[in-house]
Structure formats: C-alpha cells, structure tokens
Amino acid sequence: MRLKISHTTTYDYDEPVPYALQQVRLTPKNSGAQTIVNWRTQVTGGKRELSFEDSHRNRVELISFTPGTRQIVLHSEGEVDMKDTYGITGAHGGFMPLWMFLRSTDRTRIGPLSRKIANAIDDDRSPLDQMHELAGAVHAAIRYETGRSDVGWSAEEALAAGHGVCQDHTHAFLACARYLDIPARYVSGYLMMNDRVEQSATHAWAEAHLPDLGWVGFDVSNGISPDTRYVRVATGLDYGDAAPVSGTRYGSGGERLSVVVQVQQQ
User: Fold this and answer.
1) Which residues is 62 bridged to in the sheet?
2) Are residues 18 and 75 in the same domain?
3) Distance between CA atoms of 162 and 177, rounded to whole angstroms?
C-alpha cells in the first residue's frame, strides 16, 4: 500500500524574531516495512543550514530563521510504500547499543504508579505476551483525552492525572518495559485513520526489543501493533529524541503553533 502524506507546521510570533534555530525530524525512515518513494520539506521564513543523521539514525534538518521574521512554515510531503510486517521492525541496528534502551530518562523514570503496573505483569508469559499485557494495562490506567496533557509530562505525571494522549501512553509503556529489563524506545510518525484524511496531529507509539523478533511495535492508544497505516519517522529514548520539531529562539514575544496533517492511501 502506498500512503501520501502532507504535513504543515506554522509558527506565528507576536514580535519579529531576531534569531532562532530548529531541529526538524520529518523524513520517514527506510526499513523493511516502508520505503520512501519521494519526500521533500520546504521552508518559508528560514533556510535549511544542513542535514545529518543523529545517533538514532533519524534524518535531522537544521533550520535557521530569517532575522526579523514573524512566521515560519515547514511543509513536508511525499509518498511511502508500506508492507505489513505485523508490527515487527526487526533486528537492532544503528549507532546506539541495545543496552542504551534500558536507560530511563526524566520522562520515563520508574515511580510508584508505573512500578505497580509493571509488577502486576504475569512473568510466566512470553515476553511478547507480557508486552501486549503491559500495553493493555497502561491504556486502562491513562484515559485517552486530547487537550488534557502537557508536552513536559513524565510517565508518572500522566499516570497520576489518569488521562493523556499517545505521548503519555508511550512514556508509561517505556518506563514499565525498561523496569522489566526489556529494551524499549519511542517512535514518532504518521497514522492514517480509516474515517478521515486530515489528522489532528502526528502519532506516537512504542517499540520493545524481544527475543527472536527484534523490535516490535505497540500502539498503546489504539490497542494494536502497527500495520500498513503507520509510517515511522523518528525513534529515541523518549519524545525529546524523536520530536518532529524542536529548537531555541531569542525574543520575548508570544508564539502560536498550528499543525495540519493529511494522510491518505494513494
């Protein structure tokens, strides 16, 4: 199946921005499950300074703002051929050793609430069944509610709130999986919804590294493993490593963000 994707991110500022840099991770990964047919990112209000592959093998573009701009627009679009691998990405590769994915971060640090979930997982089951059980337990503990989360929340904060979005589900899953000594990583990307072309945002899910299978995906928010509707873009230890756009700027003016994402079968 071939998916066509259009993703526009617009930042508007109350005052001219004297200086800013953004790291952009918007280019899908080539893998056994997906192949880029074509892809491009256009920048308005700034320019591409360089492009590089980071330690997670994410394609990163460094964007500088045109001095004094009050708006920057990032528009990515392209087509990706998808193959159903039943959520299995496969063997580990890249620059990061596998043991690094057992490391906790501020967003995925184990705490009383996540530890309680992890300790309840049946240790007599296979690692694959354990991860499916974990995904269900996290989903039950964090009710999916858009508009009731914070990008800075940790797994424990989302569990304490009892509600969140896909990012919170993924961080809680990672905290528990790593506590159970299973390497796990964050995935950001696109999901084609069956009932509409325009999506509310990009999507996030987890991958766990399991014996004999390698990396296997778990979408906690939707209760399934990724299929041909899921396009992997960036991976990392948590959201910070895989965020579509991150950066820094000088200036005290306010910022407004709008995102338009469309994913459809071609």
Assistant:
1) 23, 50
2) yes
3) 19
The range of the structural domain enclosing residue 47 comes to 2-82+245-265
Encoding tokens for residue 50?
């360089």
Q: pLDDT grade, residue 254 (50/70/90)?
A: confident
How many domains would you assign to the chain?
2
Q: What is the pLDDT of residues 34-91, one digit of tens each?
A: 999 999 999 999 999 999 999 999 999 999 999 999 999 999 999 999 999 999 999 9
Q: Are residues 65 and 104 in the same domain?
A: no
Q: 204 and 187, same structural domain? A: yes
- Determine contact, residues 171/218, Cβ cutoff 8 Å: no
Q: Are residues 171 and 256 in the same domain?
A: no
Separation CA 31–CA 50 (nearest Å): 23
Check whether residue 150 and residue 71 sit in a common domain.
no
Task: Please give the helix or strand (H or E) that residue 229 lies within, else none.
Answer: none
60: which residues sit within 8 A by CB, 6+ positions away? 23, 24, 25, 51, 52, 53, 54
Query: Using one digit for the tens of pLDDT, what is the confidence trace for 102-161?
Result: 999 999 999 999 999 999 999 999 999 999 999 999 999 999 988 777 888 999 999 999
pLDDT above 80 for 200? no
Do 125 and 254 have their domain in common?
Answer: no
Q: Do residue 164 and residue 203 come from a single domain?
A: yes
**DSSP strand pairing (245-250 vs 198-199):** unpaired
